[in-house]
Amino acid sequence: MKKIGIFKSIRTKLFLSLCIIVIAIIASLILLNNFVLREFYEYNKEKQLENVYKIINDYYNSNNNERNLADELDKIAINNNFDILIRSDQDVSVYSSNKDFYSTIGEMIVSILREGKNETDILKQTDHYTISKYKDTKTNISYIMLIAQLDNSYNLYIKMPVNSIEESVKISNEFLSIIAIFVIIIGGTVLSIVSRRFSEPIVELNQIAKNMSNLDFSQKYKPSNANDEIDMLGNSINTLSNKLEKTIKQLRTTNVELEKDIEEKSQIDEMRKSFISDVSHELKTPIALIQGYSEGLIENVNSDEESRKFYAEVILDEATKMDGLVKRLLELMKLEYGKMKFNNKEFDVVELENEILRKSQVMMEKENVKLENKVEGEIKVYADDFYIDQVLTNYITNAIKYSIEVNGEKRVRIENELLPDKNKVRIKIFNTFDEFSEEDMVRIWNRFYKVDESRNRDKGGSGIGLSLVKAIMNNYGNSYGVKNVAGGVEFYFELDLSN
Questions:
Q1: Domains identified in the chain, total number
Q2: Structure confidence at residue 428 (pLDDT)
Q3: What is the pLDDT of residue 1?
Q4: What angle (nearest 5°) sits at the alpha carbon of residue 421, between those of residues 417 and 422?
Q5: Residue 1 belongs to some domain of the structure
Q6: Is the pLDDT of residue 324 over 60?
Q7: Is it the case that residue 191 has pLDDT exceeding 60?
Q8: Within this chain, do residues 235 and 376 fall inside the same structural domain, yes or no?
Q9: Which of 68, 81, 237 minimizes the C-alpha distance to 164?
Q10: Which residues of 145-170 are buried (b: 16+ CB within 10 A; e: fewer)?
């Protein structure tokens, strides 16, 4: 699986997004502190100064006791960090919250009246009062100053320092910077944990999707108890995976069946071609004989009854041979292409061997063959006795027909060898014969192959007997073969013992 770059990770993107948002918010607050907070602070203090002016003016207009006013002004001065001074029209101090205020008032007034000198800034001016911002060059302290004339002709002076707001802005900016760092660290940690909750299911779903693209549907998403959109997506992918798996299994099954059908049709076609080729090859001679003798009968080549009967017998004999050959070829084709069904059962192979030897007794006497029967007892095997009969008959018949004299006699020997380690029995048929070449020991199992055509033409046979043996043994998956031994050759095949 391709690894995702660190900057493309959802977790990294969320962390960076949080950092950008926090930094943007903190930067905005710092800008507000620097450019808005001071203005708002000064505006708020202007309103307070105006309110104090109105309170004092209204108080004098109502002719209240000045002692009560002094107490009230003390509270206002202490609570708001104001310096308040009231002087009568005879320039006599009526009230002062700071005894040193009067000594510095003169210079301030001169500076305020001369606008622009000593960094004075008039914030607000009416017919009754003036509010100005003033910076004392000696102390380097900035003040907001209200100079007013009350309705009773008293002069009112209120002063308040504004350096505190600048310090507050600085402290606030530093505090916001510290908060930003802590928010990024704590928020990043929390966000990393939270993002893992979202990213891990997404990574898991991505892996499941990749496995599905490779037709691997074994991995499934396990929903949490959140029942959120990710769980809904996981359930949808699980449903899709199950449907795809089921559909692909159906397609594979259908494909296997289709391949079997195609293979079966191909085998049938191959069987047809092979059958036609074999039949056309083997039926040339009998068809030519039948044709020749039939023409002789039609043309009355031999007019006597005995000759006509001989011609008819030849035709019948060749037709019978053709019928047997075709049937054996069809049976061989079915065996070779696995189309034959075996009726397997338990039977005594020794009994079957003795029965075939009994039937072959006349043939052995005719060919002057001496039999050595070494089979005895009882050996139970599990197979189709009909086809095993064909195998034994082919072996024994060939052994009798093709035996030659060695040391003045023809001999055929049959014996059984138990193979306990393989749970099988090996049946061996020996006959006196010349040695087979390596090539002949391979080719004799092919259809219509004969070791010596000139010598064996009079022996008859279709040349497919050993091909039948090969096909039958291949269907059972058992060993068969031939080997040269002292004085002749030995054919053999194996059968499964009955459990």
A1: 4
A2: 95
A3: 45
A4: 75
A5: no
A6: yes
A7: yes
A8: no
A9: 81
A10: bbbbebeeebbbbbbbebeebeeebe
Q: Using CA atoms, how far apart are residues 156 and 89, in angstroms rounded to an integer?
A: 11
At 434, list the tokens: 């010349």
The whole-angstrom separation of Cα 321 and Cα 288 is 13
- Which secondary structure element, helix H or strand E, spans residue 134, and what is its range? strand 129-136
Tokens 């092979």 found at: 274
CB distance 415 to 399 below 8 Å: no
Query: What local confidence, expressed as pLDDT, does residue 343 receive?
Result: 85
Q: What mean pLDDT comes out for the span 56-83?
A: 79
Q: What are phi and psi of 86, to 5 degrees?
A: -125, 125
Q: Using DSSP, state whether 430 is helix, strand or coil.
A: strand
Residue type, 31: L
User: Domain check: are 376 and 446 in the same one?
Assistant: yes
Q: Is residue 194 domain-resident?
A: no
What is the rounded average pLDDT of the residues 207-234?
A: 78
Tell me phi and psi for residue 406, to 5 degrees. Answer: -130, 120
Q: Average model confidence (pLDDT) for the chain?
A: 79
154-177: pLDDT as tens digits: 888 888 887 767 777 777 778 878
Residue that wins the pLDDT comparison between 1 and 227: 227
- 437: which DSSP letter? P
Q: C-alpha distances in angstroms, 124 versus 119, 137, 154, 212?
A: 16, 22, 20, 77
- Considering only 215-224, 260-269, 410-419, which range has the smallest mean pLDDT? 260-269
Alpha-carbon distance of 198 to 234, in angstroms, equals 12
Query: Do 15 and 158 lie in a common domain?
Result: yes
Do 303 and 398 lie in one domain? The reply is: no
pLDDT digits (tens, 9 = 90+) for 365-388: 999 999 999 999 999 999 989 889
Distances (CA, A) of 355 to 114, 251, 352, 389, 479: 150, 53, 5, 10, 23
- Residue the block writes with tokens 């107490």: 71
* Whole-number Å distance between alpha carbons of 173 and 171: 5
Is residue 129 domain-resident? yes
**Same domain flag for 142 and 236:** no
Same domain, 322 and 409: no
Residues of the domain holding 119? 6-169
For residues 265 and 496, the model is more confident at 496
Quick count: other Cβ atoms within 10 Å of Cβ 75? Answer: 9
pLDDT of residue 392: 92
Q: DSSP assignment of 222-253, as one string?
A: ---SS-SHHHHHHHHHHHHHHHHHHHHHHHHH
Q: Are residues 365 and 485 in the same domain?
A: yes
Which tens digits make up the pLDDT trace of 104-118? 666 666 555 554 444
